[in-house]
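Researcher: Please predict.
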Amino acid sequence: MRRSKFSPTQIATILKAFDTGKTVVEITREYGVSSASFYKWRSKYAGMNAKELKRLKQLEDENRKLKQMYATLALDHQMAKEIIEKKL
């Protein structure tokens, strides 16, 4: 999956700009973000500050790595079971 070119603090700044009264069109021009990305961030990160947003990103990365590790171990386990069954 492609990583965002915006850091959690930049995302929080963009969302705060909307809260202070800027329109979506102004924000998309100023920060160079698409309106679809803005609305996605707004629905996902509404009400979070930069620190909470950064922690959420870290947890999502850790979760992705753990899922990948689990998938690898599950495949190894399945292969080992098949090898044992063939020997019996």
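Model: The chain has a mean pLDDT of 90.
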